[in-house]
Design brief:
This protein is of the alpha+beta class and 197 residues long. It contains five helices and seven strands; from the N terminus they run βααββαβαβαββ. A hairpin with an 8-residue loop joins strand 6 and strand 7. Bound molecules: coenzyme A. Coenzyme A binds next to strand 4, helix 4 and helix 5.
Length: 197
């Protein structure tokens, strides 16, 4: 089996990897539940915040020097306002949270523990940088969504096993273009926060 290399890059070091990140997001987020039509223009705009943040992080999974997966994170205070607002509205201190953006892995490399490594590496980075709490948010699609594959397995159990708890009161929405649509629509998203140990 091919050797998987996991690397952590942060701040300015992420710039050379933005294109790989965009490629993986376009490839993986085509799948349910994201159904993201995507474009390199949207990607450039979306990924700009990582390039701007001094404490952003990319975790890269490489096989034979090819990036086959990546996960991202940045301080919540450097994330888009849509992601900060639910916290401030609920009296939570944005500065304490490190926000995980996405984990995207080529299908051929799933089920080999890379998803766990993405969490381990981002949590380690957050704690080294003195963030007490880690959080991410997940898109909500109806159970009856016509594009939901019959064998789709939600990641909720995985996230719970990692110590994360769903916070239905912390919700936001984020716009993107669904496959087959002509206009972007707002997607409901719910936050998960790691329970302090
Ligand atoms: C999320 C993702 C990065 C996980 O990667 P992975 O390397 O397959 O994950 P791991 O092998 O570390 O397995 C993690 C857990 O996922 C679960 N899992 C494994 N295969 C799964 C599958 N086919 N479907 C759903 N869950 C699965 C298991 O609970 C597993 O934990 P366990 O082995 O301790 O029981 C990958 O599935 C992916 O890119 N998915 C599409 C994009 C996505 O949904 N990203 C997350 C939100 S941005």
């Amino acid at each position: 089996m091919d050797q998987i290399e996991i690397d952590t890059v942060s701040g300015d070091e992420i710039t050379p990897w933005l294109e790989d990140m965009a490629r993986l997001r376009l490839q993986v987020f085509h799948e349910f539940p994201y159904l993201y039509e995507g474009s390199f223009d949207y990607e450039a705009d979306y990924l700009r915040k990582y390039a701007r943040s001094k404490n952003s992080v990319f975790i890269l999974a490489r096989v034979n020097n090819q990036v086959v997966g990546a996960a991202t994170g940045l301080p919540l205070r450097d994330a888009d306002p849509e992601f900060q607002e639910p916290f401030t509205e609920h009296g939570l201190e944005v500065d304490q949270y490190f926000y995980f953006g996405e984990s995207v892995l080529d299908k051929n490399f799933r089920g080999r523990g890379i998803g766990h490594m993405f969490f381990d590496a981002r949590e380690a980075f957050a704690w080294q940088n003195k963030f007490r709490l880690t959080t991410f948010c997940a898109v909500e699609r109806p159970e009856s969504h016509p594009k939901r594959p019959s064998d789709y397995r939600p990641l909720d159990k995985f996230w719970e096993a990692r110590g994360y708890q769903k916070h239905p009161e912390l919700r936001t929405s984020y716009n993107w273009l669904d496959i087959g649509d002509t206009e972007e629509t707002a997607k409901p998203m719910v936050f998960w926060i790691k329970k302090p140990v």
